[in-house]
Amino acid sequence: MPLSPLTEQARAVAREKAVAARTHRQDIKQKLSDRTLSVREVLDMVDSDPVLAKMPVDQMLRALPGIGAVRAQSIMSDLDIAPSRRLGGLGVHQRRKMVEFFNRNARLLNRARRNRPQS
């Protein structure tokens, strides 16, 4: 059974909602990049933030300084997290392993801090 077409008003409401969700996720990624939010803080926010729960784990990792696509994929593989997993789909043990990983490997982020130009 095909879906009924949206009215112009419903389409506009959906568009505004989508833009607000993308803007919120971008703000979170910027705060991760600026180090005003930690991985643990983001993972703690996921349960109460449905927009953040839909962010792919890969995007969150790549927002961290010094972590690109290849390193993010490697981290996810080491932590047994599927490439298509979203933050809201992470289990308790996967979240704990991710926080422990970044506590143990803080040098990944510190190296990026040293290489960042001072403003």
The average pLDDT is 89
Q: Strand content of the residues, in percent?
A: under 5%
Whole-angstrom Rg: 17 Å
Number of strands: 0
Give the distance, in angstroms, between the N- and C-terminal Cα atoms.
Answer: 57 Å
Apparent shape: elongated
Low-confidence stretches: none
Task: Please describe the biggest sheet, giving its number of strands, its sense, and whether it closes into a barrel.
Answer: none
How would you spell out the order of helices and strands? HHHHHHH
- Tally the helices: 7
Helix content: 55-70%
Class from secondary-structure proportions? mainly alpha
Describe, in plain words, how this protein is organized in 3D.
α4 (57-63) packs across α5 (69-78). The radius of gyration is 17 Å and the shape is elongated. The relative contact order is 0.12. The chain has 119 residues and is an all-alpha fold. It contains 7 helices and no strands.
How do you describe this structure in short?
The chain is 65% helix and 0% strand. The chain is an all-alpha fold.
Which helices and strands appear, and what pairs or packs with what?
Layout: H1 8-33, H2 39-45, H3 50-53, H4 57-63, H5 69-78, H6 92-104, H7 106-115
Helix pairs in contact: 4-5
State the main characteristics.
mainly alpha
